[in-house]
């Protein structure tokens, strides 16, 4: 089965990460970075920015590829190629849960460790915390995660 293209976006403010509580599969009832499936003709970066705006109401900018994952959903069996971007947004922009997001919140890495979240989100946050303060971190790829 071919992989479906998907993208997500990481926005960090003051050591907290914006996560949405997913309403629908493949990560229903889990906290994740805002994101979703690509629409026809979109680049991965365009998908990340569109999904971020749809799910949070925040217009993000300056997407920088941070990671890619090959994922198989344990609930749907679908295969995804996920591109994860770091984004920027106006500091005063207020996030409001919409679209596929049942709720959202700003969480520290320690708080995320206690939430139901996909392993790809946990992996990204571990790497982000390890990279804190570094400007030279190159994108990485992780295959075979679910």
UniProtKB/TrEMBL annotation:
Claim: Hydrolase is one of the keywords in the record: yes
Cofactor or coenzyme needed: Mg(2+)
InterPro entries hit by this protein: Nudix_hydrolase, NUDIX_hydrolase-like_dom_sf, NUDIX_hydrolase_CS, NUDIX_hydrolase_dom
GO molecular function, one term: hydrolase activity
The Nudix hydrolase domain, residue ranges: 2-129
Keyword annotations from UniProtKB, A to Z: Hydrolase
Gene3D superfamilies: Nucleoside Triphosphate Pyrophosphohydrolase (3.90.79.10)
Signal sequence region: none
PROSITE patterns the record matches: NUDIX, NUDIX_BOX
SUPFAM superfamilies: Nudix
Keyword Nucleotidyltransferase: no
Family under the similarity heading: Belongs to the Nudix hydrolase family.
UniProt protein name: NUDIX hydrolase
């Amino acid at each position: 089965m071919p992989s479906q293209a998907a993208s997500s976006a990481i926005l960090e403010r003051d050591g907290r990460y914006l996560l949405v509580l997913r309403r629908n599969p493949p990560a229903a009832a889990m906290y994740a970075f805002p994101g979703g499936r690509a629409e026809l003709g979109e680049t991965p970066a365009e998908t990340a920015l569109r999904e971020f705006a749809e799910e949070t109401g925040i217009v993000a900018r300056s997407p920088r590829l941070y990671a890619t994952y090959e994922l198989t959903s344990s609930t749907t069996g679908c295969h995804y190629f996920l591109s994860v971007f770091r984004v920027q947004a106006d500091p005063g922009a207020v996030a409001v849960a919409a679209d596929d997001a049942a709720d959202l919140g700003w969480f520290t890495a320690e708080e995320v460790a206690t939430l139901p979240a996909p392993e790809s989100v946990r992996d990204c946050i571990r790497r982000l915390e390890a990279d804190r303060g570094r400007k030279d971190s190159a994108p990485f790829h992780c295959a075979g995660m679910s």
